[in-house]
Specification:
alpha/beta, seven-stranded mixed β-sheet, 6 helices, binds 5-O-phosphono-beta-D-ribofuranosylamine, two-stranded antiparallel ribbon
Length: 201
């Protein structure tokens, strides 16, 4: 089974979706380690509930971003991690990290990229007035929310939506899309050709 490590910073609802899919056998992958850059992340407790090793790694204990990322890489490699999932992880990864897991780091973002990268994507969508937003799972490169797109789900923006109501509906789709992409990768269905990602039927 594909060994997955998950990086988190907060609530951990996407982590929860992965843990549930792993437990019921539908993920085709095993979550072997959860790492957080925030001590108070609820995600750490969720991992604990599923008996998955979880650790807070304090950024302030490292002099540079590279040193921090190197420490994360070592912990992930020690557990045999083959795929890294960013599930609400709020830091940009360095090239040190990415070089250790080439084309093996994915992220979930709550908009239809390349629209509305960065923070508060749902509020950005409401303010801009788009009629559809959604969520994107993409490979991670050094640009923020910029790597090749693997899959997207569109979610209509309603006239009376605010950032919170839209975020809630997008989140439901995130919880479907992220496990689905991990399943595809675990089954070897995903190929990257330049910026285009092909998913074999
Ligand atoms: C999600 O909306 C995800 O798309 C974004 O951060 C949020 C994390 O939520 N990258 P959670 O921690 O998974 O509940």
């Amino acid at each position: 089974m594909l060994k997955v490590g998950v990086l988190v910073s907060g609530r951990g609802s996407n982590l929860q979706a992965l843990l549930e899919a792993a437990r019921d056998g539908s993920l085709g992958a095993e979550i072997v380690l959860v790492l957080s850059d925030r001590a108070e992340a609820q995600a750490l407790l969720r991992a604990g509930d599923f008996g998955v090793p979880a650790e807070y790694v304090a950024p302030q204990n490292f002099n540079t971003k590279d040193a921090y990322d190197q420490a994360l890489v070592e912990k992930l490699k020690a557990r045999g991690v083959e795929l890294v999932v960013l599930a609400g992880y709020m830091r940009l990864l360095t090239s040190t990290f990415l070089a250790a897991f080439p084309e093996r780091v994915i992220n979930i973002h709550p908009s239809l990229l390349p629209a509305f990268p960065g923070l508060n994507a749902q509020a950005q969508a409401v303010e801009y007035g788009v009629k559809y937003s959604g969520c994107t799972v993409h490979f991670v490169d050094e640009r923020m929310d910029g790597g090749p797109i693997i899959a997207q789900t569109a979610v209509p923006v309603k006239q009376d939506d605010d950032a919170e109501s839209l975020a809630r509906r997008i989140l439901e789709e995130e919880h479907r899309l992220l496990p689905q992409v991990v399943r595809w990768i675990a089954r070897g269905k995903v190929r990257v050709i330049g910026r285009r990602v092909l998913v074999d039927e």
